[in-house]
Amino acid sequence: MEKFIVDGMLGKAGRWLRLMGYDTLYFNTNRKAELLRIGRKEGRIILTRDRKLALSNPDVVILIESEETLNQLKEIICKLSLTLSEANLFNRCSICNSVLESKIKEEIKNFVPEYVYSTKDRFSQCPSCKKVYWDGDHCKGIKRTIEKLFSSP
User: In 3-state terms, what secondary structure has residue 114?
Assistant: First the structure.
């Protein structure tokens, strides 16, 4: 599976890539040499809207020309021939990119609202930032959006 780094111009797209299960770092700095070093060292594709950076480093950088997040995602999917893996959806922290860990209900009682605890049975937690995730109503909408991104030309 592809690994990415998005720069500050593609932060929202990076979050969506993580929701899709893609290992995606967010690099919001103007230190382009460091961005390139990390990309090459870790075998990551750098996604950016910075035309100069992309043209001068075509071996590791992909230029994303769209301005709107969903169009950026369509462009990324198309340019990189990405495929949708249902098994990988929602397996990474949308904030920090860590792989989520399944938690038994009792372990997260003090980390979620009482209503959520009483109505949900499956939870995941980020081992790094400790954010807790569950299959809420918003997940259906996110999943529909992702499926639409992969089905439309």
Answer: helix
